[in-house]
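Here is my example:
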Amino acid sequence: MTNATKQLADTPFSVLDLVPILKDKTAADAFPSTLALARHVEKLGYTRYWMAEHHNMAGIASSATSILIGYVAGGTSSIRVGSGGIMLPNHAPLIVAEQFGTLASLYPGRIDLGLGRAPGTDQLTAMALRRDLRGAGADFPENVEELRTYLSAENATARVRAVPGEGLNIPIWLLGSSTYSAQLAALLGLPFAFASHFAPASLQAALKIYRDSFRPSENLQEPYAVACVNAVVADTDEEANYLATTLYTSFLNVIRGTAMPMQPPVASMNDRWDAAEKYAVQQMLRYSFIGGPETVKEELQSFLDDTQVNELMIASHIFEHQARLHSYALLANMMKRHQATQ
């Protein structure tokens, strides 16, 4: 049974950008495209623009996430910019507090700090990042609390302080692809974002645990949940399905463990994957909304009916830059706030 109390037009839309490196291009080409997209969606009325920490991936240029957040925040004026997320096991909490304290000092009221407990890479690269994998992820709650302490005004008398960072009230989010971070976010009274764009299986369970277990905090009185989904929107269903072959190819490469830059769309995937691979990709991409505006609008409203999330975050794996901009513009037409910005 669904509870259709939330309407798509009244729901904030945000962006998750993996800063893709396209075939035959470099990271130096990816960064201006990311800034152009951020400026585009800011004008369209999107709420926040997040980038995710990944390492050792030939098609993703967002490894130095905090630097890119500064780049995008400096090139925009009002949209919130943040991490979706910073993979906390890769970093000392003090370093994260200082980096985001610096960002929040440069761009006050506009920086979000989303935290994840996955490595954002393979185990060998995780070792290169951390040097020691003992306790990696297992001490995530303690590291979150340490980070929150550094960012608190109460830490002013401590021997170890985050300068800048201390007392800046930077919003902290917990991110997850399972129920673990949902439970922790609920206990700490923090907002929660779920990675249903690649890990759909636990979405409903995570949302239920988060809402049922939520404890109000000084920062948040009621649970606030975001779901990240994939969307490829074009003028017609046919064009969108063609553009979406880039998305399918990207996830096929994940399943195969083949690191490649983002690939252009193809006429058909039939000779690209076998039946088992197709099934695996389709399972990962269950919450992908592909089609013309009316098709996607209807499917997104159904998703909102089922999940009752407070905000939708959109990841768009589209190869051609103008087509990607157009997809986000078509999505923005589904928001009332878009009309207010025109």
Remarks:
- The beta strands are 13-17, 48-51, 80-87, 111-116, 172-176, 192-194, 225-233, 288-291, 311-315.
- The chain has a mean pLDDT of 93.
